[in-house]
Structure formats: structure tokens, C-alpha cells
Amino acid sequence: MSSEQQLTLLDELALYEGTDVEYKAASGGLPGSLWETYSAFANSAGGSIWLGVVERGDVPCVQGVEDPHKLRGDLFNLANNRQKVSANLLTEAAVAIIPVAASGRSVIRVSVPRAGRKDRPVYVGSNPFTGTYRRNHDGDYRCSEDEVRRMFADQSDEPADSRILEGFGPDDLHPDSLRQFRVRFSAAFPNHAWLAEDDPALLQRLGGFRRDRVSGKEGLTLAGILMFGRELAIRDPAALPGFQLDYRERLADSPDVRWSDRVTLDGTWEGNLFQFYQRVMMKLGDGPGLRRPFQRDAEGYRRTGTAVHEALQEALVNALIHADHAGQGGVVIDRHLDRFEFSNPGTLLLSREQLLRGGVSECRNKSLQKMFQMLGVGDKAGSGIDKIRRSWVEQRWQSPRMAETVKPDRVQLTLPMISTLPEAAMAELARRFGPQVAARSGDEIQALVTAVEGFVTNQRLQDMLVLHSVDITRMLQGLVRDGLLRPEGKTRGTRYYLAGSPPDLEPSPPDLEPSPPDLEPSPPDLEEDPQLLELAAPVRASGKAAREIVRSAVLNLCKGRFLRLRELGSLLDRAPETLRDGYVSALVEEGRLELRYPENRSHPDQAYRTRPTERECGA
């Protein structure tokens, strides 16, 4: 084992901060829950399981394992046992024995990769409908039967959109869509041989009509109906009854305006993918934040004029061709003043790393992909995301972010139009740290700029940078060593603030302005207030209270008054960082707590008050 691998274990564990890590005691052998987490990581984004480590509060506690080589052998034996788990994804290098300095014991790190679509679902036992797990923010959860069926559907070599729709015919197609497609096709490839075909033959070439040589069935495919069909036919129970498309512009200054423009299935146009694509591309070409609108070609259609417009076109087509159109929510495009969001139902068929590297193409709807390629978009070489990223880098905008969520399965691509080097943030960094900032790498400057906004986390940077979470933590720790950032919290809950910025938990400076007159100041001598002590008693008197009890106590204590984290910590006998990361932040996001200073979340005198319920408001 190299000297780099033989880190002290706490240093090694400190590199892991996200939901892609799980600690498990293994004093009595392999824990039974290991395989549930193995399944969950494999069916999600992958992750690391640490055997011989337990988590107490926010801190990993090293216990070590007895006879690590035997335990490692047992792990591989069970991974190869199809009665235990459906697939072994582990290589020799993926299961590492790591010595613990000074104790003479070792822990085992199991690096579980994301399973390829052919291996998913990875399940425990012999029944995929009861043994398939996935990962979300709350840990491992058992998948529903519908989720498992969708994973099996993605295994198939037969694309989802190649399904023949029995009982559908020419009357279910929208003639103008097919005619307009021919015009666009001809403009992109004027000498293409397929242009000489009649409509039925062209549909067959494109995959919109198919004959199954085994069963003898023939007819319009799901792709043909999606691209060129009438909306009524697409939403037929035999096709896609939950089909939905939505483009929403949120460009108005007034919060009372829900959206300033919208393209949705409202009956005013024929709701198929081709018509949606044409309408949305017209919208994406103009508006705030874009330097130059689309140009019009000889046929009156707009064509892309800049790399940004090409990237937007690529993002739209990706959402349409990779979507699981039978899933929940449909394709949704949201445009804001500072970003575009492209969201579609389904899961990623490749890992984030494979997508960012490019060169590999996996598409859920291959006929739809071919149809858009005939329009000159939808590259099959697996370079679409890379093309989008390059365009955004040229503009010096923050990197595109791709997120995958579950319940329901959705993929969202966010394209921020926010400078990576905003003048105000760079000026603040120069004021604090002088010329040394200019010598930092682009990724380090991005981390510092993000911290100017309040704080930066590993998870936030994972969405912004093309780096593994471990590499991000190493970078953040380097910025801490160089005196540019200061950390608060432990491992998964660590937040990094600009060095020298006033911490949340320090006393307020004496020259701070007093609280606004309509806000009640926190009562003095909180620890002596009998009413507050009574409210805090269920948690204060307990070494380990249930999560809901702690949440309830926080809400009761903050009812009618603003309390700081250190005051809550004193009343509940809990570390302020634990309350912030485990409870308060979540209650703020849920709208249960309000901030004293909502415009500045990292305000040194920040405090929290319970929002009244509808009943308390008199609703």
C-alpha cells in the first residue's frame, strides 16, 4: 500500500462529505444491511461503504474490524453468490483494507460503482420487486414495483420508442408536422436520399413505422406518434395518457406574475414533440442574457447564431430524446432571468462521469434521436453535454449542473447565466486576500466566489465543477490551510466560509445595529427561563431524542420569538452545528422557520422564528 493510501483514517474519512458514503460497524462480521446499501449505491450514483466505522452525531468513529482479510474474502464470496445479490460490480481494487494508525486495526473501504443499465436493477435476494434499493438524502429506501419495472425496461436492447401501437393509423398523424419536418430536413441535408421517399417510406426510414419480423405486427411506433402525431392520439390510453410538455418563462420583475410566457398543451396547437421543439426554439433565441438572437434562414426558420444558442438547442433535444415519456411530470423547460432549466422524466443511462467525458452514447428513444439528427441536432457521438459545457465556459458562466432525483425519477440540467468571476465578488476577494487570489486555479476561484455569497459546501461544488467529491474536499482543505476559507461542522455537514468572515456562532459585535423594532429580541438569561426550559425538557433530559421530538422542540422554542443557534443549543443541550445541519436548515427550507435576516443567511446575528400555521394566521 502506498504512503498516500496509509493516511491516518480520520484524514481519509474527512474527504467524504456527501450522501455517497455510508459507515457500518462490522465487529461481528459483515453487517446484514451492507447489501441493501450496496444495492442502493449501485442503482443510484455509486458510493463508498466503510466497514469498521460508525457515525456518532456528525463525527465518524473508528472501531476497526477483526481479521480484515477474512472479511474481505467473505465479501467477495457473497458478492458472487446470486442468492445473495444479483450482480457483483466489485473489482479487486474496489475493496481496500486501510490500516488505522496506532490502533493496530484496519477498516475496509468498499467502493461501489453505479451499475450500467444492463445490470440494473441490482437487488438483494432472489426477488427484484422486494430486494431493490436506491439512495436519496434520507439513506437507502426500497424501490416500488413501478421503479423496478422501469429499470428492467431500460435494460432492453429494444428502445422504448420502437413499440408498435396497434390500432393507430394515418389519421392519427398531423400532416403539417410531417410536411414541416421535410422542409427542415431538406434545409439541413439538401441531397439526402430519404427526401425522395413518400411519407410512409420516410416514416419507416426514421423509425416512425415498423414491422416486427417475429410477430408479423406492423404499424406506427411510439416515436412516430410522439414526433408527428395528433395530441389526442398521443394521450390515448394505448399510447401515453400522462404525456405532458411545458415551457415556462419567468422573466417578470413582479413576484405576482407566475410566468411571463408559456407553451403548454392547451389546445391552441397540435401537441407533439416536433411542434413543441419549433415553438420553444423560437422562444429560446431571444430575451435577456443572450447576446444575439437567432437568424432566419431562407425558409423563414430561425437557425442558431452562436455557440450558446447551439447549446440551448442541444439541451432541448436531449430532454426530448432521453425522456421516459411514460414517466411522471413530462418534459418541463423553465427559463429564468439568470438560468435555463431542462427537466425530463426518467433516469440517467450513463454515470455523470461518463456523460462529462463524452464519447459514449446511450439513448432511451433511438428513433426520436434519429429524427432530430435529420434536422442537424442531437449528436449521436455522446458529445452533447461536452458541447454545452464548452459553450458555457466560453461565456465565463458557471458550469452547467446535472441533477438526478427519485420519487419520481427525473433528470434536470441547469444552465446558469451567472459569471464565474462577478466583479463584486472578485473585488471582495481582492480586498480580503490581496493579489494571491489571482494565482489560484479556476476551480479554487469558483469555490471562493461561491463562498462570497454566504458559504460553500462540497455538494454545491459537485453541481458546479467536474471534480469528484473527494477531490473537491482536498481542494477546500487546501484553501483552509492557505487561510482563505474556514470550515464549520464535520464531514458531511461541513460548510466553508471566507476566512475572517464573522461566524454564525460568535457573539455579535457591539456596533451592530439593534434588531428592527417589529422583531422581538431574544429574552435574556434563556437558561433560567422556566417556560423555555419546560419546552426544551423532552430533548434536554434525553441523551438521544427522536428526530421528530427535536424538530418539535425547536419549533416550540422559536414560536413567537427569534432565537440564535447558540441559544437553541444552550436550551436543548446540543451542539449548535448539529442543530443547524440536522434540523434548523431543513425547517427553514420547509418554510417552518423564518430568518431574522433573510437577505443575508450568514448574518452574524442570524436568528430563527417559527412561522405561524394557517390556523394561527386565521385562515
What do these coordinates show?
With 619 residues, the chain is an alpha+beta fold. It has four domains: 9-144, Schlafen, AAA domain (Methyltransferase, Cobalt-precorrin-4 Transmethylase, Domain 2); 156-415, Heat Shock Protein 90 (2-Layer Sandwich), CATH 3.30.565; 423-498, Arc Repressor Mutant, subunit A; 526-610, no CATH class. 34% of the residues lie in helices and 16% in strands. Strand 13 and strand 14 (302-303) form a beta hairpin. Residues 1-8, 501-524 and 614-619 have low confidence and may be disordered.
Strand order of the largest sheet: 12-11-15-16-18-17
- Biggest sheet statistics: 6 strands, mixed
Helix fraction, binned, reads 25-40%
| Envelope shape | globular
Give the domain tally: 4
The CATH architecture classification of the largest domain is: 2-Layer Sandwich
Number of helices: 22
The Cα radius of gyration reads 28 Å
Average pLDDT works out at: 82
How does the helix and strand content classify structurally?
alpha+beta
Top-tier CATH class of the largest domain: Alpha Beta
Q: Proportion of β residues?
A: 15-25%
Q: In whole angstroms, how far apart are the ends?
A: 66 Å
Regions with little confidence, pLDDT below 50 for 5+ residues: 1-8, 501-524, 614-619
* Count of beta strands: 22
CATH topology label of the largest domain: Heat Shock Protein 90
Topology, please?
Blueprint: H1 9-13, E1 21-24, H2 34-42, E2 47-51, E3 53-56, E4 59-62, H3 68-79, E5 95-99, E6 106-112, H4 128-131, E7 133-136, E8 139-142, H5 145-155, H6 175-188, H7 199-206, E9 209-211, E10 218-220, H8 222-228, H9 231-234, E11 245-250, E12 261-264, H10 273-284, E13 295-296, E14 302-303, H11 307-322, E15 331-336, E16 339-345, H12 352-357, H13 366-373, H14 384-394, E17 401-405, E18 410-416, H15 423-433, H16 442-452, H17 458-464, H18 469-481, E19 485-488, E20 495-498, H19 530-540, H20 547-557, H21 565-572, H22 576-589, E21 593-595, E22 608-610
Parallel strand pairs: 1-2, 11-15
Antiparallel strand pairs: 2-6, 3-4, 5-6, 7-8, 9-10, 11-12, 13-14, 15-16, 16-18, 17-18, 19-20, 21-22
Helix pairs in contact: 10-11, 11-13, 11-14, 17-18, 19-20, 21-22
